[in-house]
C-alpha cells in the first residue's frame, strides 16, 4: 500500500499553487505549473430566476468576493447554490416561525413540521457552499485574496 488515500476526495485538500508561491513555497516541493487559472469576475448580476431573498444575498456575496478578487467564472454555480439554499432556509424558517416545530399530523397527533427538515438541509448546504466560497472564518483564512496594501507604521520614521 502506498500510504496515500485511494478514495477520491478524502484527506486534506491541496493548497493552491498561488498560495504556496505567496508563502515562499515553505515545503520546497515542486510547484504545479499546469494549474488552471480562471477568469476573475469584475461584476455580475444575479440570475433573473433567483427569488428576492436569493438575489439580495447574491448581491451581498458577489460584491465582497469581487472586492477581494477571489470570484471567478467557475465559482458562479457555487454562489447560485449558496444563495438558493439561503432563500430556502428563509422560507422554511418563516414556516416554522408561523406554525411551530411540531404540527398536527394526519391522524391528529403531533409530528415534526416538515419545514424543520428543509431548514436543516438548507443550513447544511449553506455551510458547504459557503465554505467553498470562503464565507466562513475558517475557510476564509485559507483563501488568498487580492494583495492588500501594507499599512504603514506611523512611528517607523522615528
Automatic annotation (TrEMBL):
List the InterPro entries. Answer: MIP_CS, Phage_term_ssu_P27
The organism's superkingdom is given as Bacteria
Start and end residues of each stretch annotated as Disordered? 1-38
Name the Pfam families for this protein. Answer: Terminase_4
The record's section on NCBIfam families has:
sm_term_P27
| Stated name of the protein | Phage terminase small subunit P27 family
Amino acid at each position: 500500500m502506498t500510504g496515500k488515500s485511494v478514495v477520491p476526495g478524502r484527506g486534506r485538500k491541496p493548497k493552491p499553487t498561488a498560495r504556496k508561491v505567496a508563502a515562499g513555497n515553505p515545503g520546497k516541493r515542486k510547484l504545479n505549473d499546469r494549474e488552471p487559472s480562471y477568469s476573475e469576475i469584475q461584476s455580475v448580476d444575479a440570475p433573473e430566476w433567483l427569488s428576492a431573498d436569493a438575489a439580495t444575498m447574491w448581491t451581498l456575496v458577489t460584491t465582497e468576493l469581487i472586492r477581494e478578487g477571489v470570484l471567478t467564472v467557475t465559482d458562479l454555480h457555487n454562489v447560485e447554490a449558496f444563495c438558493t439554499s439561503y432563500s430556502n432556509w428563509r422560507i422554511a424558517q418563516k414556516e416554522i416561525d408561523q406554525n411551530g416545530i411540531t404540527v398536527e399530523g394526519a391522524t391528529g397527533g403531533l409530528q415534526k413540521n416538515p419545514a424543520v427538515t428543509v431548514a436543516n438541509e438548507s443550513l447544511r448546504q449553506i455551510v458547504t457552499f459557503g465554505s467553498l466560497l470562503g464565507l466562513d472564518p475558517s475557510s476564509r483564512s485559507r483563501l488568498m485574496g487580492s494583495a492588500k496594501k501594507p499599512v504603514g507604521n506611523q512611528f517607523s520614521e522615528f
